[in-house]
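Supplementary Methods, section 5.1.

A reviewer requested that the exact input to the structure prediction be made available. We therefore reproduce it here, unchanged from the version used in the analyses.
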Amino acid sequence: MKAILITIVLGFNYFVGLYYVFINSLYSSLLISSLIAVLRHIKRIKYSAFRDLISSPEAPPISILIPAYNENGTILRAVNSALAVKYPFFEVIVINDGSTDGTLETLINFYQLKKIDHVYRNFLKTAPVRGFYNNPKYPNLLVIDKIKSGKADSLNCGLNLARSPYFCTVDADSVLENDAFLRLMAYVTESVVPVVACGGVVRVLNGIKLKNATAIEIDLPKNHLALFQIVEYLRAFLFGRVGWDIANSILILSGTFSLFNRAAVMDVGGYNFRHVSEDMELVLKLHRHFKGNKKRYRIKFISDPICWSEVPESFQMLARQRRRWQMGLIQSLCEHRQMFFNPKYGHLGLIIMPYYLFFEMMGPIVELLGYIVVPLSYIFGLLNFKFFVLFLILAIAFGIFLSTMGVFLEELTYKRYPKWKHLFKLLLFGILENFGYRQINAFWRFQALIRFIFGKRRWEYVEKKGNQNNF
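The structure derived from this sequence is encoded token-by-token as follows.
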């Protein structure tokens, strides 16, 4: 029995070793391809005429949808930022999802809104709407008040009222750079393949000084959790999503800042209100629809339009956010399990979906067990020193390499953090995140998997610390 147990433990250790070799090789490939792609993109946008869209009658109109639930501390900042974007034709639709903290009253008082009669066609079935508000001084602003039913249902409500061929979802704690839509729509208008969805970069708002809902001074936050998330976001957006985009394999566009073709989304039934991460499920649904019907389409990630978003600064709120993200991933993969290993969906079904299953969904189990079993195996003499060192290199040292390369990629390209002290501090936190922060993230993702298995699939609300005076 002892011999069998030792064989199982050794087998698992070698499996962990192969797992890390494979995943780190993939990340290295993504890093190299992302570096090449981002440098090419920066060179291209120097000569791009995206700014000409500001005066072009051919610029497609956009509806900006801002769902809000108990966002009294951030809602004015987000709406003012949306109203200030440089784009010729747009409307801002705020959907108040039954807030109880005075969010609606804050909007009514600040913009001097009046309740109006408005035709509401319930194309996508939603919870009842209680009222519509506007002010002729702000002709492109409409506020909807509805019974609480969740973010996905609120977005569907906004879609029912949107008048534009494209819509963009923006979180109520976010601030858009004023040329973000010009940069997004430049690709849409230039593409010879219909673009049904595209997303830009989300960066951490914490620490940024604002004036009139515009970033006037970029600085790093004092909160350590927020600093870890800056490094994480740089890695995820600058080489994670850029790399997947090259292979036309984007499965995740952040709901914080994503642009969609309204007709395409309506065709697939809008957002799924049963999911806690409605953005990924929608992207998968679009892939499945267009691939399954052999239609030409593109889902694109663009690395220079930027939206600044507030991130959690406490372990409690961060845990809720990461569990929800992982729960959404699991739900989306299960919902579209027919795509797995299905040649009908090409490389998405044969390669990309299995990757998300084995390395994103099941990855936290392997990672956590690896941190426990491999060191214990070495301590009890079941593993030799060389294998143990290899594990540390693959699990820790390579993680440090990827984090620091994400920071360097930012410095080489967009340079949103202008000071040398910013660079050194982010590099330091790129190293430190591999000693605790990464492991606790894996634990939260593991918690989400356990909760999914036992049927606890609820939305976990994340409180924001926004300040209305800081806009």
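The domain at 32-317 is CATH 3.90.550.10 (Spore Coat Polysaccharide Biosynthesis Protein SpsA; Chain A). These observations are discussed further in the main text.
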